[in-house]
Amino acid sequence: MPFPPHRPLGEPRFVERNGEPFVFFEEDPAGLTPGTMQMPMLTFFVYAHLDGTLDAQGVSDAIDKTTGGRAKLPPEVIEKIVAELDRHFLLQNERTAVRRAVVLETFAKSPSRPAKFVPVPAEVLTPAIDEMYRAKQGAGPIDRARSGGSVRGIVAPHIDFHRGGPVYTHAYKQVAESAGAETYLVLGVAHRSPPSPFVLSTKAYETPLGTAEVDVDFTERLLKRAGRDCLEHEIAHLGEHSVEFQAVQLKHARAGRAPFKIVPILCSMFDDPAAAPVSDFISALEETMRGRSICVVAGVDFAHVGPNFGDEKPVTEETIDWICKEDRKSLAEVAAVDAGAFWQIVTDGENKLNVCGLTATYTALRLLAGTKGELLCYSYAPAPKQSVVSFASAVFR
Question: pTM for the full model?
Fold first, then answer.
């Protein structure tokens, strides 16, 4: 009898531990398996071949063919590996369905979304973020004595801190040294892209630096204008990191200042920004923001190029030059606060750079119309399989 298919996870990361290859998954989009997951390479081979059509012998034959005979796993070993995958709810079967129902019910009853992707305690995290500011590419230490000027919005990365931490600091130094806002409207990326273009959450975001409470009054006013359909896929927040990383950076940047609240919104991919579900929700946001002390935060990355993102060829120096050139075109429109031009440049050629932050950045620029933008920092970092992710920081006044 064929094994059930595997359950899709987040982006894999390939590393070595004591000379042995491992595969890490830093996120579980469904929130069924807590924490970072790691698999020995042979376990990953089995996991990857579980498509719902193969039994133990079929998986054994497929791995043998894939590896050119270098990995030979007898059916009885595969049976044990599949049992272990099942134990961690990594198969699409009845056991996982029951687990999913429990997670959904627990999340629905909880007033907050638990910290998931930044699991270190405050006494470790605070100095680690401080070090990001002091790093070579960082913005320099925060001057906590400064508290002047108004920041209407920022663009910041959502790449993991160990790859893009210093770039975050350029945006959040502006936030830290400003007069601050009562509410931060945080636009993240729904990487699994549920059917709704925007996914709101009423849940506070827990972080090691304290809980980022939700602006309940703003949220209720928004729901009256936009309708409650934007809460239908709220569970998506549980398995996404883009808003959580901004909540952490906000708690660090505004430490010791007046309390603030957040409005967490995940942006799915959509094809037509003029479509009614998109334009109506953005209009509802604009109306709800009027007369309030709001700072818009877009937690976005830009180019995703290479085999890890579906491209045939690995990234070369020539590819990186091309990525930077293309990114600079769209980022110029970010600085110009021109949402339409930004959308047009990125989608020309059907989003050839795989810009995951397309819709969140577009939405932020719509909300920030009339402000003056400034690009502060741009960089890129390696991704698995000789691939690259780019990201940037910008501020709007």
Answer: 0.85
Question: Please, is 26 exposed, middle or buried when counting C-beta atoms within 10 Å of its C-beta (0-12, 13-18, 19+)?
Answer: middle
DSSP bridge pairs for 87: none
* Structural domains in the chain plus CATH codes: 12-105 (no CATH), 112-396 (3.40.830.10)
Question: pLDDT (tens digit, 9 = 90+) per residue, 139-184?
Answer: 999 999 998 889 999 999 999 999 999 999 999 999 999 999 999 9
Half-sphere exposure of 63 (CA within 13 A, CB side): 25
Task: Give the up-direction half-sphere exposure of residue 91: CA atoms within 13 A in the CB hemisphere.
Answer: 18
**Residue 366 to residue 337: CA distance in whole angstroms:** 8
Nearest C-alpha neighbor of 373 from the set 338, 391, 397? 397
The neighbour count for residue 369, using CB atoms within 10 Å, is 11
pLDDT tens digits, 86-99: 999 999 999 999 99
Residue of 351, 341, 346, 260 lying closest to 297 (CA atoms): 260
132 by Cβ neighbours in 10 Å (0-12 / 13-18 / 19+) ranks as: buried
- Which residues contact residue 362 at a Cβ distance below 8 angstroms, ignoring those fewer than 6 apart? 273, 339, 342, 343
